[in-house]
């Protein structure tokens, strides 16, 4: 009787010590007090069944995913508060058959990377690209991942850039670089800024920037490509009045370069 009483006393003495393990881990920062992991440890200590533990593990995984998504959104908001600016440094200028000069500036991939890279890293982000080529199109996916594990992606596709006198490899490289630049800008929500020298892009509203660059890309493929794009994406009268002449001149110049 005395031995039983002694064993019971030992169990009673041990129970509060075991229960104190969870708060101790909380104080060390290993587990949040209300996290499913802490609840799972408590359940295991109390003799929970395998099925119950598996349910707790599933709950823990879902909780971690939600926490990771919250950290991603908070980090992205902090990144955007940095007011990152992508400057247009690449000058493009050429003379059309009519003798007019068309010129504009745009940001290269390196300009975008230099602008967003440090701020992204500061707030726990990394990024990478997946590149695929099939059925005559290049597909680029930019994946933005937070240190907590949550990631999001933007995908864009385009045919090889056949403008100018590029060889087959250069056409692929040009289109890939173009798509990398735009997917990175899209996933981070940044836009290009800078002083332009002509009517094609001067004082271009931020909302028109991506649209205008898409038109530029088609114009650089020649008049036929520009006309096809016009038919498929009929612009507003205001947009065409403002940019149409320069786009048509760029298309003519591209055709002339091919014929030379």
Q: Tell me the β content.
A: 15-25%
Estimate the mean pLDDT confidence: 75
Helices and strands, in order, run as HHHHEEEHEEEHEHHH
Uncertain ranges:
1-27, 195-207
Broad shape = elongated
How many domains?
2
Using the CA coordinates, give the radius of gyration.
29 Å
Helix content: 55-70%
Structural class: alpha+beta
The number of strands is 7
For the structure shown, list the relevant keywords:
single chain; about 260 residues; alpha+beta; 3-stranded antiparallel β-sheet; two-stranded parallel sheet; 9 helices; 7 strands; disordered N terminus
How would you characterize the overall build of this protein?
- This protein has 260 residues and is of the alpha+beta class.
- It contains nine helices and seven strands; from the N terminus they run ααααβββαβββαβααα.
- Residues 1-27 and 195-207 have low confidence and may be disordered.
- The protein folds into two domains: 2-66, no CATH class; 88-123 and 161-170 and 179-259, no CATH class.
- The strands form three sheets. Strands 4-5-6 form a three-stranded antiparallel beta sheet. It has a two-stranded parallel sheet with strand order 1-7. Strands 2-3 form a two-stranded antiparallel ribbon.
- The protein starts with a helix and ends with a helix.
- α5 (109-122) runs parallel beside α6 and α7 (206-219) packs parallel to α9 (237-259).
